[in-house]
Specification:
By secondary structure, this protein is an alpha+beta fold. The protein has four helices and 15 strands. The protein has a 15-stranded antiparallel sheet that branches. The radius of gyration is 19 Å and the shape is globular.
């Protein structure tokens, strides 16, 4: 699967609204203007942090041994059965505990799995994840072993606590690739946790802002040679007085469709060029 930043979609929309605002402000209603203001005031800073979370999760996205590089500033280590990772974004720190599980919630020791893998020595988190995923695929095959990350954000007036992200290992090739990703509950019990939205709150901004995002199954390896995901990401931006709801729909093509509640029509985003067109 082609590696790209999912949040580019909403970022482009926010920039597009910002550009349009100065040109058409006099011809839009107050409710639409409030949505534009909420996106412009809240999204850019919170988007950077959400993107940081997925920068860590991107390291789970293996592609036939062509592993992504660790992002600049990432630190990580084995801790008990888990991996702890942290990434600084601006004045805030994203912390994530990554664990490995069999399909029925059987936790495995990340350090042991990594040591048994073909990459040695391991210096980057992506290399450790490669080794771990290979061992999970060897032990459990296509039955759905998964990685689970519990993450939080602190510092700079930004907070998120006990949020979850789950990545199923398998895919059409039944190897160590990432088959799908979902936002999820923080607790694992008896299998992959239920889908649950994640929220980031910024109390340092004026107005105070929050970003909530959710995906039940973003499929990344459904067929041989798949470059783009299939699935939907739902996003809510809230500035305390106005709530903006948006949906990004992926169909395994280079074009994602973005709809924003309360606005007419939709937008098509080319994932290769980041070109946004109204439709």
């Amino acid at each position: 699967m082609r590696c790209f930043r999912w949040w580019t979609a909403i970022a482009v929309v926010s920039l597009g609204f910002g550009a349009c605002d100065t040109q058409i402000k006099s011809s839009i209603d107050s409710a639409t203007q409030a949505k534009i203001d909420a996106i412009r005031n809240c999204f850019p800073g919170l988007w950077q942090l959400a993107d940081g979370v997925f920068d860590i999760a991107k390291l789970w996205q293996l592609n036939g041994g062509n592993n992504p590089s660790d992002p600049t500033g990432l630190s990580w280590s084995f801790s008990g059965s888990d991996i702890t990772a942290s990434l600084t974004v601006g004045s805030s720190t994203i912390s994530m505990t990554i664990s490995a599980y069999g399909p029925n919630g059987e936790q495995r020791n990340c350090s042991t799995l990594s040591a048994a893998g073909p990459i040695s020595p391991v210096s980057e988190l992506s290399e450790a994840i490669d080794n771990i995923s290979r061992q999970l695929a060897t032990e459990f095959g296509a039955s759905g072993p998964f990685l689970h990350g519990v993450w939080s954000i602190s510092g700079g007036g930004v907070s998120a606590t006990g949020e979850g992200l789950t990545g199923v290992i398998g895919g059409v090739a039944n190897d160590n690739r990432l088959e799908s990703v979902s936002t999820s509950a923080a607790t694992v019990s008896g299998g992959a946790p239920a889908v649950d939205p994640s929220t980031i709150t910024d109390t340092s901004s004026t107005p105070n802002c929050s970003l909530t995002f959710s995906t039940d199954t973003l499929v990344t390896d459904e067929e041989q040679g798949q470059e783009y995901p299939r699935g939907t990401i739902s996003v809510t931006i809230d500035d305390g007085t106005t709530q903006v709801n948006a949906t990004i729909t992926f169909d395994k093509s280079a074009n994602a469709v973005i709809t924003i509640e309360g606005t007419t029509g939709s937008f098509t985003l080319n994932l290769d060029t980041s070109t946004l067109t109204a439709s």
